[in-house]
Specification:
The chain is α/β, with parallel strands linked by helices and 344 residues long. The chain is built from ten helices and eight strands.
């Protein structure tokens, strides 16, 4: 373990925990080698630069690593519960089998960090940059990441897609299907957004396309049309709006309700529903919106209502179209619900 000067830009943080100097840390690790018991709980490494620190298999809860830069850190099998890694920079660090429950990583940068078999329940991973981070059989929930990860927020959609894919596989490994559903939904969102007009040429334009930073409406537009990225983006947009890629069944219900109310307004406004007779006359065309709503609901569910009939061929045609839409919405809702409940 080597200690160096503090990381700039974190001096404003005031730590209430006792700070540990590099000299004290060296003495502690010398004691560890000699077998002398020592304690590091609730100590502060605020802003330090630590290279090859080794806290393997140690009970060191509540450590403060705020703004700390750590290279090649070894934390495997250690108990770091409740520690503070906010704004820290961790590179090539090993947290395998570590307990990191209630640990705060807000605003940190994690590169090539291994969380295999670690416990990250109730940890805070919001606003964290993830680059080459390994999640394998890691106990962590989607709530820890906030609404979306940093890569997606910054428009790095393919990178975010890969991270969400790895998270989804991890969630499925530990049997957390609600979190897997969240990761799958965000994964599909990033995939379709990567085909957007501003990003398609950058991500799918061939060799050297990653270097494309400036948006050129003409070049990007031509590529967007020729590469059929417009079609992939449009289908992704519609799938998300309609049923959230089979992860948002409630969204389908809202669309179904919208269809019922829209058609009921059409029936009522143009006087397309008759009541009280098997034969439609101008005199018995209903002026009640509730009757039109009932007729619309019946058409949507491919059923019928006694004493309510279409006033013309237009009404019957609209009712047939509405019946097709109703069957489609019901099929989407059933598929989405089974996918959500079944963890698919």
């Amino acid at each position: 373990m080597h200690g160096k000067k503090r990381t700039p830009g974190v001096e404003e943080f005031k730590c209430t925990q006792p700070h540990i100097s590099i000299e004290e840390l060296k003495i502690i690790f010398q004691d560890r080698v000699s077998g002398t018991p020592f304690r590091l709980e609730s100590k502060c490494f605020h802003g330090a630069y630590l290279d090859t620190i080794d806290l393997t298999n140690l009970p060191v809860q509540g450590l403060c690593f705020f703004g700390t830069t750590i290279l090649n850190g070894k934390f495997g099998d250690s108990d770091l519960g409740g520690s503070d890694f906010r704004k820290a920079k961790l590179t090539n660090c090993d947290f395998q089998n570590a307990n990191l429950s209630n640990t705060d990583f807000t605003g940190s940068q994690l590169m090539c960090v291994d969380f295999s078999n670690a416990n990250l329940l109730r940890a805070i991973l919001d606003d964290v940059e993830l680059d080459g981070v390994i999640f394998h059989n890691t106990h962590v929930a989607s709530d820890s990441f906030g609404k979306m990860i940093v890569a997606e927020r910054n428009g790095e959609f393919l990178k975010a897609h890969e991270i969400y894919h790895a998270l989804r596989q991890n969630f499925e490994q530990v049997g957390d299907y609600d979190s897997a559903s969240w990761a799958y939904y965000r994964e599909r969102i990033c995939k379709y957004k990567s085909h957007g007009l501003k990003f398609a040429r950058k991500y799918y334009g061939g060799f050297g396309s990653d270097a494309i930073e400036t948006f050129d409406f003409f070049k990007d537009g031509i590529f967007w049309l020729r590469n059929k990225s417009w079609f992939r983006w449009l289908t992704g947009f519609l799938q998300n709006a309609l049923w959230g890629f089979a992860q948002k069944p409630v969204r389908v219900l809202f669309w179904g309700a919208g269809v019922v109310f829209l058609f009921s307004f059409i029936y009522w406004y143009w006087g397309l529903v008759c009541s009280g007779s098997d034969t439609c006359w101008e005199a018995n065309i209903t002026t009640s919106w509730m009757n039109c709503l009932l007729f619309s609901l019946a058409a949507f569910s491919t059923s019928s209502v006694p004493n309510l009939i279409g006033a013309s061929w237009l009404a019957n045609t609209l009712a047939s179209i509405q019946g097709i839409l109703g069957v489609t919405v019901l099929a989407l809702f059933t598929t989405s619900l089974s996918s959500k409940l079944g963890g698919a």
